[in-house]
Design a protein that fits this description.
Number of helices: 17
Low-confidence stretches: none
Strand order of the largest sheet: 1-4-5-15-10-11-14
Mean pLDDT: 96
Catalytic activity: (1S,2R)-1-C-(indol-3-yl)glycerol 3-phosphate + L-serine = D-glyceraldehyde 3-phosphate + L-tryptophan + H2O
Number of strands: 15
Bound molecules: pyridoxal-5'-phosphate
Cofactor: pyridoxal 5'-phosphate
Protein name: Tryptophan synthase beta chain
InterPro entries: Trp_synth_b-like, Trp_synth_b_CS, Trp_synth_beta/beta-like, TrpB-like_PALP, TrpB-like_PALP_sf
Family: Belongs to the TrpB family.
Amino acid sequence: MSTAEVTDTRFSLSQADIPSAWFNVAPHLSSPLDPPLHPATREPVGPADLAPLFAEELIGQEMSADPWIDIPGEVLDVLRLWRPTPLVRARRLEAALGTTARIYFKDESVSPAGSHKPNSAVPQAFYNAREGIKRLATETGAGQWGTALSFACAQYDLECAVYMVRRSFEQKPYRKVIMETWGGTVVPSPIDDPDNAGSLGAAISDAVRDAVGRDDTHYALGSVLNHVLLHQTVIGLEAQQQLAMAGETRPDVVIAPCGGGSNLGGIALPFLPDPAVRLLAAEPASCPTLTQGTYEYDFGDTAGLTPMMNMYTLGADFMPPGIHAGGLRYHGDSPIVSKLVHEGRMEAVAHRQRAVFEANVLFARVEGKLPAPEAGHGIASVIAEAKDATAKGEDRVILFNYCGHGLLDLAAYQEYLAGDLAEEP
Ligand SMILES: Cc1ncc(COP(=O)(O)O)c(C=O)c1O
């Protein structure tokens, strides 16, 4: 092929184009979010109730109605280590599918931790350090969030205590090594029940207990909360600029996997004001929060220590099967994502584990990148959308979030390739 015939597949912004403010979706919602309720009194919580757990600035962001919130320079300095991330046109996937659709993905796997999670870990660590906190306690499922927070804490000289869902702790031993390399400490959760495979809800309880028990410690949550989705909007804001570079007016559909909703919110929320853009959440069939849960107030953790939130939930004591997509094994969901699904503004689909790995292996073979099991839920949806567009003869523009690589999930790939991967319930 001569140079003149080369077609761009990678759309990169300069480091100066990194967004300088986060997009707050609150003013764009059909009505204000229902307030979180105190776990004991069931009255709406105020900033004072949250102060033992979170930095003041983060509590302000959680409740803010400002349309834009400036990103501090000290945060941008760290985000610039890997941001802006590339937008890639998946032409080889398009060719493999023989589709009429145009498929783009935002590559969040290039961050230090290998996923989108540092986008929120960095500001959370920064605001806590600025307010004099010395240590953060958190939960992690697949290990991606714990890895991201360990990295972020290292940037601002904070200690980091990570409670990792026992099942993932055993499935992904190298995650612990990365977290320890960045100075974090990692223990399997539930800490008081060694025979229990664990859940994100139980790990949250362990981390909250740790944080309320020490004056020098705050809690950090890697998803679900409004401020976490806010921090992740750098993904969608960059993608908007990059799609324009690629000559696209808008995506027809934006797709992302959904555990607690942070990477989905990050890529999708900046597109919410455009009613022509469909938004699609992809979740596991074995933890079908949005597709089979109920929309009601529930606790964020198993012990009932967190405020209650109005969200889709499978029940705070739901114990998901040990699928490899550890980051998607959460009983609840972001109140923002839940509201959008409840009102029909966002769609949700569920995928089974083997279909997810089938999609991941196809993606790896044609695009070269080895997706995290979580990311595969989005890819399975992308393939379904592309096939649907082809059947209807549409040149649908599909944007999806490649939220993480699977280079520490090789045991899962080994099982799949050997034909041993459980199809889970
Ligand atoms: C790679 C990856 N993708 C997705 C998720 C799901 O979380 P969220 O829905 O908050 O993006 C996780 C959570 O750990 C993850 O590690």
